[in-house]
Design brief:
Strand order of the largest sheet of chain A: 1-3-2
Largest sheet of chain A: 3 strands, antiparallel
Structural class of chain A: mainly alpha
Oligomer: homodimer
Number of strands of chain A: 3
Mean pLDDT of chain A: 86
Distance between the termini of chain A: 57 Å
Number of helices of chain A: 7
Order of helices and strands of chain A: HHHEHHEEHH
Low-confidence stretches of chain A: 1-17
Strand content of chain A: 5-15%
Largest interface: A-B, 59 and 62 residues
Shape of chain A: elongated
DNA sequence: TATTGTTATACTCTATAACTATA
DNA sequence: TATAGTTATAGAGTATAACAATA
């Protein structure tokens, strides 16, 4: 293929008039837009310099265990909308990383209280900085009132 | 730091008030709310009478192949934000279901054009009705202007 | 060299059922 | 009986690398 054809094709592709895919009703669907927003958010987050590897679930556990020392696994699961069966492996991983410990409750011996270790506290502080930095980049796209309204509208979807 | 978070943290859990988990900054994060909204949307969708089992990716392929007969796999992947490697298995499944067929392009023999079969057309029409029904239930939570603004704000997140 | 489709791999996420020990 | 945690399993989703055929 010669250079001219290559250049023309590149123009076609970037200008988008190649096929101009018809998205039909997709852009009008809440589910489609929520999904795309989450994909965009997630990709941009992972494309960051990636000093740390963190997933939403793990970050949520660290945050909740930091704010609620001794919180039970089932409570973490409820708040983060993670099944209690899947919470086990998540806690296992964090425990193997040395970031949390399980402590059996004396009052109710069924409950495993989750506590951050010193290393977990440090990890949480670092991760929180990363998350807030990422949040700041996305929040730049909105005015304060727009951001507030977006959060409000999203939260109404979970009622 | 954050005065609100500090104040919230001061409200400690007691044995009688186990449900009052401190969420700290989570409710203020776009990522957290996007994630929760998608989980809520997905759970409610799956909890429907489930006449049909449909996933977002598969529905997207059917819709795009319906609106763009002969669309290439790589174009489907780009529009739906699915990796082309993962698109293969998705198309495989739809082809095994008898809903789509691959047709090698004559102009560019690298391209596999995706076309709906008659069964695929019927399936698409049925699934579209289900999706729109589901969409209607969620849209009820918003006024028309709120819904438009929510879509607009979400789309800005993907730019 | 670049693109399209493909295989292979690995890890994450989600959902469900069944089990235990405690209440 | 009900709850908290666990194990096991299976199906999706996601990301990456490498390859063949084609451009």
């Amino acid at each position: 293929m010669n250079g001219i054809a290559r250049a023309r094709r590149a123009v076609r592709r970037t200008s988008g008039d190649r096929k101009a895919i018809d998205l039909d009703i997709l852009p009008s669907l809440l589910g489609f837009n929520i999904r795309r927003a989450q994909i965009a958010l997630w990709r941009r987050f992972n494309r960051g310099d990636a000093e740390v590897d963190i997933k939403p679930g793990a970050f949520g556990v660290l945050l909740l265990a930091h704010a609620n020392p001794g919180v039970a696994q089932v409570e973490l699961a409820q708040e983060l909308h993670i099944d209690k069966a899947n919470m086990v492996a998540l806690i296992d991983k964090l425990e193997n990383q040395g970031w949390v410990v399980r402590k059996r409750s004396g009052e109710d011996r069924r409950r495993q209280g989750i506590h951050l270790t010193a290393a977990g506290q440090r990890a949480y502080r670092m991760l929180k900085r990363t998350v807030l930095e990422h949040e700041k980049n996305f929040a730049l796209r909105y005015s304060d009132s727009e951001r507030v309204q977006l959060l409000s509208l999203l939260q109404r979807m979970c009622v």
